[in-house]
Amino acid sequence: MSTLHADGEIIDRQTVRFERLLPGPIERVWAYLTESEKRRKWLASGDMDLRVGGRAALRFNHSELTPHQEVTPEKYREYNGSSVVYWEFTRCEPPRLLAARWGENAEDSEVTFELQPRGNHVLLTVTHRRLADRDFMVSVAGGWHVHLDILADHLNGRVPPPFWATHARLAAEYGKRIPAGDDS
Question: CA–CA separation, 29 vs 150, rounded Å?
Answer without folding.
Answer: 13
